[in-house]
TrEMBL record:
InterPro entries: Aminopeptidase_N-like_N, Aminopeptidase_N-like_N_sf, PepN_Ig-like_sf, Peptidase_M1, Peptidase_M1_dom, Peptidase_M1_pepN, Peptidase_M1_pepN_C, Peptidase_M1_pepN_C_sf. Residues 261-474 form the Peptidase M1 membrane alanine aminopeptidase domain. This is Aminopeptidase N. Its EC number is 3.4.11.2. Residues 1-22 have a biased composition (Low complexity). Keywords: Aminopeptidase, Hydrolase, Metal-binding, Metalloprotease, Protease, Zinc. Signal peptide: none annotated. NCBIfam families: pepN_proteo. The keyword Transmembrane does not apply. The gene is pepN. Belongs to the peptidase M1 family. Residues 125-221 form the Aminopeptidase N-like N-terminal domain. Residues 599-937 form the Peptidase M1 alanyl aminopeptidase C-terminal domain. It comes from Rhodocyclus gracilis.
Length: 938
C-alpha cells in the first residue's frame, strides 16, 4: 500500500540508533532496464534459515538447495547472489568450505563459479539490526525486531538471488532471549519451539521457534518478527470448511485498538470468497503492527507487517478516515495473498501486475462495504491530486516502467492508482462476468508462477474473446491522454453526432524534446472506454440508439463506447433536441476531458445527471472554472507592497449567485430529507484541491490560487450561512460513535459546514470549533476542530493544541495528527512553527510517520511550501539531506515535494533550482534521492 499521509512512532530512547551505512555514490548507480531481463542461472528450491539474535547483532545461517535453471540460456553461468551490509563469516558448498578461487565477494555481490547442476550452499553472516535505520531488511523498533524485504531488503539479511522470479520453500528457525523477545514469528506454520541454553553460563534464558511455509515464495515476501507483543486471536471458517487461525500482534497494552482491524480482515476474507471465489490457503494468518515502517503495510506470506497507522483504532483515537484506511489496507494486503503471492511478478517492472490489480480489488471491496459513488469520487480525487501531476512531471513513467535506478522510487501513484484504473478499464470493457472468468483463467494458468503484465491481459482477453492487443498500450504509455469531445445536433435528421479525438499528453516542461517526448509526437491510439449518457433539457437520460441499430429494441441510457482510433464519430438517432452529453461516467478512463460546456449546462448536470460521479464532476468543473478565473484576475493585479497576493480578496460580487444556488440545492436535499446521502453532499461541496487546480494553470501563482479558493469558500459560507448552521446542528452526534459509512458521511458533511461557516465568519466558526473540540467523544470530531483552529491560529488554537498534546502525549498516532495539523496550517508563520517542532521531543526524524506528518505535511501545504522567498524549498531540501543519511527511501519520498517546481514563476523556479542543485551537489547522496533530484533537474 502507498505511504501513509499522516502517521506512529517510538520514543527517542527506543528507536533504532546508530550511524547510517556508507551509501552508493549516485554516479555509479546504473540504470536497470526491462529490456535487459534474463532468467536467473540458478533456482532455489529450499531455504533453511537460522537467525540468532545475539549480543552483537544477529547471526544468520542460510542453507540454499540450488538447481541450475532449465530456462537459462547459459548453461555454465555462475551463481549470482545479492547482499548488502553483510559481514560474511563463512561460505560452504555441499558441506565443504568454499575455496577463494571459486568465488568473488564484493560489497553487494557473491559470485560462485563452476557449480554442479544441483548443490547446497551454506552461508553464515552477521548483520546489525540495531543500527539499521533504513527500515529495510531486519531492523529494530521499540518492541523488538521486524523485517521489510520488498523490494530488495532480503539481501540485507543474507546472501540470496534477491529477485522475484526465484521462488523457494522456506524453513526458518529463530533463537532469542525468552524474556526480551518472547514472540518469535515467521511465514507459514509453527512446526516446533522450545527452550535452549543461555549464550553464556548464567546468561539470560533463551528459546527457539521454527516455522515452515508450505508455499514457494520470492524472497521479498519473507518476514520474521522477534518481539514483545500482545496478541488478539480469532478464527475464520473458509467457504470450503477449513479453519484459519487469525492473530493480530501489537505493542503491549494496545489490544483494545485491534478490534476493527480484525473485523476488517474477516470481512475481506469473506468478500474475496464471494466476489472472486478465492479462499485463504493458510492455517495461520498473522498481522503484526509496528510503529517504524516506511510504507503502509506489507503482504508477507501469512505474516503481514503493518504500519500501526493501518491497524490501531479506537473511537477516541482514530478518525473516520483512519477507520476506512484500515479497512482498505487490511483488505489490500489480504488480497495480495492471491494477486501478488500465489501469482507473483517476474521482475520489478511488472510491479503493477500485483499492485494495480490489488488496488482495484481493495477499491471494489471498499465500494461494496461503503457507498460506491462516494468511494469512486474519492479515488478520482486522489488520482487527480497525486497521479495526474506525477504523470506530467519529472517522475512520469508508464504503469509498467521501462527503466529505473532505484526500484523503491517506483512505488508510485502511477503504478498503484493508474494501474488500478487500467484494470478497471478492462473490467468496464469486459463486464463483471467475463472479468471474473479472466481472473479464474489467470489463476488456472499461473498459480505458483512469477509472470508479466502480458500474462494477465492475455488471460483476460482469452477468457472474454475481447481483443486487448491495443489496450496493452496503457501499460507502456506515460502521461495523461487528452480526450476532446465535440457534439453536433441536427434537428432535421434528429441525429446527434459525437466526435471523440484522443490527443497525447501535453509535453512536459523542461523535458528534452528528443527523448521521451519524441514517442508522443505521433503515438498510436489507445483503446479508451468512454461510458456516456445524453441528458435532455429536463436533465433526464435519453435512450442511446447508435445509427444502424435496431430501432425496435429498447435502448440503454448509459453505454460504453470503445474509442480505438485517433478520431471517431458516434451517431445517435432519435434525438429531438440538443442534448447535454455526460461523458466518462463513473470516470471510465484516466484521461483529461476537453468538452466545452456552458455554466448552465454544468448546473443542469450537477443537479440531474443520473450518474452520481458526473453530478459531482460537473460541480467540480464549475468550481474550478470560477477559482481559476478569479486567480488569474488576482495574479494580474499590479504588485502592491503593503499587501501580499495571498491576502488579497475576491469581491463577493465576482462570484455568480447561480453557484451558491446550486450548492444550496444540494444542502436543501439533505435538510429536507430528499437526499439521504450526506457523504455525497460533502464531496459535492468540497472544492478541488490547490494541487489539482494548479495543474490547470499555465504559470502557477500559489498565492492567487490560495486567495481565490478561499474567496469562493467565503462566498459559499456567506450565502449559505443559515443552511450551514441548520445542518451543523441537525447533524450533531446522537448516539455513541460508530465508524459506519452512514455516520461517517454525516460527520463529513457536518465538518464541511463548519469549515464554510468559519470561512465566512472566523469568529463564529472558531467558537463552534472550540466547543466541538471540547465536547468531542471521538477523534473525527476532535481532529476536524483542531485542524480548523490551527488554520486560524490565536488563543483558541494554542489552547486546543496544548490540550490535545497533553491528552495524547503517549499515543504516537495522535501525536502525528498534532504535528500534521500544524504543518498543514495556512497561517503565514507555519514554516517557523514547523522548524520549532523539529526540535520538539515528540518529533523524530528516524520515524517515517513523523516525517510524513511534519515534513511531507508541510511539503503538501501548497501556499506555504511554495513561498516566493524560497524558504520552504530551502527547508525541505535541508531536511531531505538530513534524512537521507538515516532513511534514503523516506528521504526520496520527501524529495518528491519538488516535482512541480518548473510550473511556477521564474522567481520561484530560481529558488527551487538552487535548493535542488545544492542537494544534487552533495557527495554521498543515496541512489534513492539522487534519482529523484536528477530527474527533477534533468
Ligand atoms: N507491497 C506493499 C503494498 O503495497 C508495499 C510496501 C510495503 C513497500 N513496504 C514497502 C514497498 C517498502 C517498498 C518498500 O502493500
Ligand atoms: Zn500492495
Amino acid at each position: 500500500m502507498t505511504t501513509p499521509t499522516t502517521t506512529t512512532a517510538t520514543t527517542t530512547a527506543t528507536a533504532p540508533a546508530g550511524a547510517a551505512s556508507p551509501q552508493t555514490p549516485p554516479a555509479s548507480a546504473p540504470l536497470i532496464r526491462l529490456c535487459d531481463y534474463a532468467p536467473p542461472a540458478f533456482l532455489v528450491d529450499r531455504v533453511d534459515l537460522e537467525i540468532d539474535f545475539a549480543e552483537q547483532g544477529a547471526i544468520v545461517s542460510a542453507t540454499l538447495a540450488l538447481r541450475r535453471n532449465p530456462q537459462s540460456s547459459d548453461t555454465s553461468a555462475p551463481l549470482l547472489l545479492d547482499g548488502a551490509e553483510l559481514e560474511t563469516l563463512s561460505l560452504a558448498l555441499d558441506g565443504v568450505e568454499l575455496p577463494p578461487a571459486r568465488h568473488r565477494l564484493t560489497a553487494d555481490s557473491l559470485t560462485i563459479t563452476d557449480l554442479p547442476d544441483a548443490c547446497t550452499l551454506t552461508t553464515r553472516v552477521r548483520i546489525q539490526p540495531d543500527s539499521n535505520t533504513h527500515l529495510s531488511g531486519l531492523y529494530r523498533s521499540a518492541d523488538g525486531y521486524f523485517t521489510q524485504c520488498e523490494a530488495q531488503g532480503f539481501r540485507r539479511i543474507t546472501w540470496f538471488p534477491d529477485r522475484p522470479d526465484v521462488m523457494a520453500r522456506f524453513t526458518v528457525t529463530l533463537h532469542a532471549e525468552r524474556e526480551r523477545l518472547p514472540v518469535l514469528l515467521a511465514n507459514g506454520n509453527p512446526v516446533g519451539s522450545g527452550d535452549e541454553a543461555p549464550a553464556m553460563p548464567g546468561g539470560a534464558a533463551r528459546h527457539w521457534a521454527r516455522w515452515q511455509d508450505p508455499f514457494p515464495k520470492p524472497s521479498y515476501l519473507f518476514a520474521v518478527v522477534a518481539a514483545r507483543l500482545d496478541v488478539l486471536r480469532d478464527e475464520f471458517l473458509t467457504a470450503s470448511g477449513r479453519r484459519v487461525q487469525l492473530a493480530i500482534y501489537v505493542e503491549p497494552g494496545k489490544l483494545d485498538q485491534c478490534g476493527h482491524a480484525m473485523a476488517a480482515l474477516k470481512q475481506a476474507m469473506r468478500w474475496d470468497e464471494q466476489r472472486f471465489g478465492l479462499e485463504c490457503d493458510l492455517d495461520h494468518y498473522m498481522i503484526v503492527a509496528v510503529g517504524d515502517f516506511n510504507m503502509g503495510a506489507m503482504e508477507n506470506k501469512g505474516l503481514n507487517i503493518f504500519n500501526t497507522k493501518y491497524v490501531l483504532a479506537r473511537p477516541d483515537l482514530a478518525t473516520d478516515h483512519d477507520y476506512e484506511g484500515i479497512d482498505r489496507v487490511v483488505a489490500h494486503e489480504y488480497f495480495h495473498n492471491w494477486t501478488g503471492n500465489r501469482v507473483t511478478c517476474r521482475d520489478w517492472f511488472q510491479l503493477s501486475l500485483k499492485e494495480g490489480l490489488t488496488v482495484f480489488r481493495d477499491q471494489e471491496f471498499g465500494a461494496d462495504v461503503h457507498q460506491p459513488s462516494v468511494a469512486r469520487i474519492r479515488e478520482v480525487r486522489t488520482l487527480r491530486a497525486a497521479q495526474f501531476p506525477e504523470d506530467a512531471g519529472p517522475m512520469r513513467h508508464p504503469v509498467r516502467p521501462s527503466a529505473y535506478v532505484e526500484i523503491n522510487n517506483f512505488y508510485t501513484a502511477t503504478v498503484y492508482e493508474k494501474g488500478a484504473e487500467v484494470v478497471r478499464m478492462i473490467h468496464t470493457l469486459l463486464g463483471e462476468d467475463a472479468f471474473r472468468a479472466g481472473m479464474d483463467l489467470y489463476f488456472a494458468r499461473h498459480d505458483g508462477q512469477a509472470v508479466t503484465c502480458e500474462d494477465f491481459v492475455s488471460a483476460m482477453a482469452d477468457a472474454s474473446n475481447v481483443d486487448l492487443a491495443q489496450f496493452m498500450r496503457w501499460y507502456e504509455r506515460a502521461g495523461t491522454p487528452r480526450l476532446v469531445a465535440r457534439g453536433q445536433h441536427d434537428p432535421v435528421t434528429q441525429r446527434y453526432t459525437l466526435t471523440l479525438t484522443q490527443l497525447p499528453p501535453a509535453p512536459v516542461a523542461g523535458e528534452a524534446e528528443s527523448s521521451t517526448a519524441a514517442a508522443a509526437d505521433a503515438p498510436t491510439p489507445l483503446h479508451i472506454p468512454v461510458t456516456l449518457g445524453l441528458l435532455g433539457a429536463d436533465g433526464a437520460d435519453l435512450p442511446l440508439r447508435l445509427a444502424g441499430e435496431d430501432a425496435g429494441a429498447s435502448a440503454p441510457t448509459t453505454r460504453t463506447l470503445s474509442l480505438t482510433a485517433t478520431t471517431q464519430k458516434f451517431v445517435f438517432e432519435g434525438i429531438t433536441a440538443t442534448p447535454a452529453p455526460s461523458l466518462l461516467r463513473n470516470f471510465s478512463a484516466p484521461v483529461r476531458l476537453d468538452l466545452p460546456a456552458s455554466d448552465d449546462e454544468l448546473a443542469l448536470r450537477m443537479a440531474h445527471d443520473s450518474d452520481a460521479f458526473n453530478r459531482w464532476e460537473a460541480g467540480q468543473q464549475l468550481a474550478s472554472r470560477l477559482i481559476l478565473g478569479a486567480a488569474a484576475r488576482l495574479s494580474a493585479l499590479p504588485a502592491n507592497a503593503d499587501e501580499s497576493v495571498a491576502a488579497r480578496e475576491v469581491a463577493a460580487n465576482e462570484w455568480p449567485e447561480s453557484f451558491a444556488n446550486a450548492a444550496a440545492r444540494i444542502l436543501d436535499a439533505v435538510i429536507d430529507g430528499t437526499s439521504a446521502d450526506p457523504a455525497f453532499a460533502a464531496e459535492a461541496l468540497a472544492l478541488p484541491s490547490e494541487a489539482t487546480l494548479a495543474e490547470e494553470m499555465t504559470v502557477v501563482d500559489p498565492d492567487a490560487l490560495f486567495a481565490a479558493r478561499m474567496g469562493l469558500r467565503r462566498f459559499l459560507g456567506t450565502r449559505l450561512s443559515e443552511r450551514l448552521h441548520t445542518l451543523y446542528d441537525a447533524l450533531a452526534p446522537s448516539g455513541s460513535y460508530l465508524p459506519t459509512s452512514a455516520d461517517a458521511g454525516r460527520r463529513a458533511l457536518r465538518h464541511l459546514c463548519l469549515d464554510l461557516i468559519a470561512a465566512a465568519d472566523a469568529e463564529a466558526g472558531c467558537a463552534l470549533a472550540a466547543r466541538q473540540f471540547a465536547a468531542a467523544d471521538n477523534m473525527s470530531d476532535q481532529y476536524a476542530a483542531l485542524v480548523l483552529l490551527a488554520h486560524h491560529g490565536g488563543a483558541a488554537a494554542e489552547q486546543a493544541l496544548a490540550d490535545f498534546h497533553a491528552r495524547w502525549r503517549h499515543e504516537a498516532l495522535a501525536l502525528d495528527k498534532w504535528l500534521l495539523a500544524q504543518a498543514t496550517s495556512r497561517r503565514p508563520d507555519t514554516l517557523a512553527v514547523v522548524r520549532r517542532l523539529l526540535a520538539h521531543a515528540d518529533f523524530d526524524l528516524r520515524n517515517p510517520n513523523k516525517v510524513y506528518a511534519l515534513l511531507r505535511g508541510f511539503g503538501a501545504n501548497h501556499v506555504r511550501f511554495h513561498a516566493a522567498d524560497g524558504a520552504g524549498y530551502r527547508f525541505l531540501a535541508e531536511q531531505t539531506l538530513a534524512l537521507d543519511a538515516i532513511n534514503p527511501q523516506v528521504a526520496a519520498r520527501l524529495a518528491r515535494c519538488f516535482d512541480r517546481w518548473r510550473r511556477f514563476d521564474a522567481g520561484r523556479q530560481a529558488q527551487a533550482r538552487a535548493a535542488l542543485e545544492r542537494l544534487a551537489a552533495h557527495a554521498g547522496l543515496s541512489r534513492d534521492v539522487a534519482e529523484i533530484v536528477s530527474r527533477a533537474l534533468g
